[in-house]
Design goal:
Layout: H1 11-30, E1 34-39, H2 41-53, E2 59-62, E3 71-75, E4 91-97, H3 106-114, E5 123-128, E6 133-139, H4 140-149, E7 152-153, E8 156-157, E9 159-162, E10 174-181, H5 186-194, H6 198-206, E11 210-212, E12 215-216, E13 229-232, E14 236-246, E15 252-259
Antiparallel strand pairs: 1-3, 2-3, 4-6, 4-9, 5-6, 7-8, 10-15, 11-12, 11-13, 13-14, 14-15
Length: 260
């Protein structure tokens, strides 16, 4: 087999690119599907670019449910089809059940699990599934450990089950915010959403940390429009709900829904 090419990314991304090359080589050598850890949006971009630059098309991405944001990369052998891989992903949904009078947040679950020494790469999406229920997607090898060691999240008692809740449907929670900007340029929008300066917002964009509708955007002057979903790594995820005219000073008024 030819030596695979690691793309020229940052040092951190080059390490991930090398791991993706290793997965591809291992899949071809062993003739079986091989899986990465959970990847965030930026890491997915790196993985896909690495596969594409090596003319490797036998890969798929899955995070445990159709709308998942964090996903695993799977390299599969030529005798398999993409649809054959979905059931083989080593992903387990864990349903946390607790009293609805004590609502728990995404960060509550993330903090409780990482306090056990579990790496973020072993955890997929954390999804509210109705009052008193949250589903956390985890690597299969971590499921038993979590079930046996978590009985509280924060100060709230929880029961953990290895399965989806009945009639699983992710519940999205938002807070409404309102911003004004001088322009619909992406750097202006990111600055207003995060409180960062225009300079720091531009640096975030150029570093591949900003996404529009899950696609990486590297242009500061990209024109954002109503309906776009803007994700800024470590800062949050936002939907540009509506553009509402101008202030007396000519700034653009925008209504935004922030994922909570």
């Amino acid at each position: 087999m030819k030596k695979l090419k690691v793309d020229a990314f940052s040092e951190e991304d080059s390490i991930l690119s090398a791991k993706i090359c290793d997965l591809i080589s291992l899949s071809e050598r062993r003739c079986c599907p091989c899986f990465s850890d959970f990847l965030n949006l930026h890491e997915i971009h790196v993985a896909v670019k690495t596969a594409d630059s090596n003319a490797f098309s036998r890969y798929c991405l899955f995070g445990g449910f159709e709308q998942a944001e964090r996903k695993m990369f799977c390299a599969f052998p030529d005798y398999m089809e993409e649809e054959d891989c979905a059931e083989q992903f080593p992903i387990v949904p864990l349903t946390f059940i607790y009293k609805k009078e004590f609502p728990l947040s995404h960060s509550d679950f993330l903090g409780a699990l990482m306090a056990l020494g579990i790496k973020r790469s072993c955890l997929g999406d954390i999804v509210a599934a109705g009052e008193g229920q949250t589903v956390v997607f985890v690597k299969k090898e971590m499921a038993e450990y979590i079930c046996g060691n978590v009985n509280k999240v924060g100060r709230v008692g929880v029961n953990v089950k290895k399965d989806f809740p009945a009639n699983f449907s992710p519940v999205k929670s938002f807070s409404d915010i309102f911003i004004t900007v001088s322009s619909m340029r992406l750097d202006c929008i990111v600055s207003a959403l995060t409180g960062l300066s225009r300079e720091k917002s531009s640096a975030m964009i150029l570093a591949g940390n900003v996404f529009i509708d899950s696609g990486e955007v590297l242009k500061q002057d990209f024109a954002v429009k109503a309906g776009d979903t803007v994700t800024v790594r470590r800062k949050g995820k936002f939907i540009v709900d509506s553009v509402n005219g101008n202030t007396k000073k000519g700034r653009i008024k925008i209504s935004v829904k922030k994922y909570t």
